[in-house]
User: Which sequence fits this backbone?
């Protein structure tokens, strides 16, 4: 009897914990309380999409805030140079150091077919960034970006654009993931000619359009890619580092935050971490 009661209690507690992590379907959240004079807003973006139109509720949040903060300061004129400097593998490593001839040929064919160039022109670039060059090919439409749309509004309103982390900090994430792990995903992309990646991305877009950020967090957590195993580096550590910066920015002035929607949900998502820090974070629906 005691065992049954214990199991029942564990089931109830587990159920409550899961329900507590399930968030309302919204990509826009208001941050208030904890000493803030005026609310700030948190918006979950998707970095590439077919339609990055700013909807009315997001525009209203932009109107009520006085600066825009993205993951990095995309308005920084030195950003491109910094990104280029951090894209290359260290110690003279190249793609050929990590794959056999068959896999190298598959990657080369993929790039010739999709990018119109041989892989030898990029062979010393970190595998993750080589794969990222193919992301626009996941779409059956001209690529748009929410970050670019948000920057356009900020500039029209003569507002400053800042970042939660520096370009160098973001690039360090990919230094923490071994090249051997990064290359596995590139080989997978090549061997099925982006078929599974396109299917995954289509599913991600569908979930994003439904604004179900909890399901989006689950999708990312359960991803079977090699790089997804480094969730701590890619998401959790970064989310935790952002909280004091969000707190600082928000206390100075009402701020609009635009970060990848995958950072919002889950136990270590930005919403839950902000709530743990004492803020009231509510969905704007």
Assistant:
């Amino acid at each position: 009897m005691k065992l049954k009661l214990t199991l029942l209690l564990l089931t109830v507690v587990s159920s409550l914990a899961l329900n507590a992590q399930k968030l309302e379907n919204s990509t826009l959240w208001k941050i208030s309380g904890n000493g803030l004079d005026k609310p700030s807003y948190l918006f979950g973006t998707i970095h590439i999409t077919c339609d990055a139109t700013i909807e009315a509720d997001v525009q209203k949040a932009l109107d009520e805030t006085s600066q825009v903060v993205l993951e990095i300061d995309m308005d920084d004129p030195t950003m491109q140079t910094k990104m280029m400097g951090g894209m290359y593998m260290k110690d003279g490593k190249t793609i050929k150091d990590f794959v056999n001839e068959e896999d190298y040929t598959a990657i080369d064919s993929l790039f010739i077919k999709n990018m119109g160039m041989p892989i030898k022109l990029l062979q010393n670039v970190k595998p993750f960034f080589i794969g990222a060059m193919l992301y626009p090919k996941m779409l059956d439409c001209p690529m748009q970006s929410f970050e670019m749309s948000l920057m356009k509004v900020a500039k029209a309103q003569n507002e400053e654009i800042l970042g939660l982390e520096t370009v160098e900090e973001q690039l360090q994430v990919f230094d923490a993931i071994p090249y051997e792990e990064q290359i596995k995903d590139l080989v997978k992309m090549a061997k099925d000619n982006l078929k599974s990646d396109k299917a995954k991305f289509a599913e991600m877009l569908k979930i994003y359009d439904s604004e179900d950020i909890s399901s989006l967090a689950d999708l990312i957590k359960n991803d079977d890619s090699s790089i997804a195993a480094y969730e701590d580096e890619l998401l959790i550590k970064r989310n935790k580092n952002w909280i004091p910066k969000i707190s600082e920015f928000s206390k100075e002035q009402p701020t609009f935050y635009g970060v990848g929607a995958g950072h919002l949900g889950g136990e270590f998502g930005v919403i839950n971490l902000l709530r743990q820090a004492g803020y009231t974070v509510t969905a704007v629906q």
Notes: The chain has one domain: 25-258+271-283. The CA atoms of residues 101 and 107 lie 10 Å apart. The two ends are 46 Å apart (CA to CA). Strands lie at 28-32, 40-45, 67-70, 160-163, 255-260, 280-283.
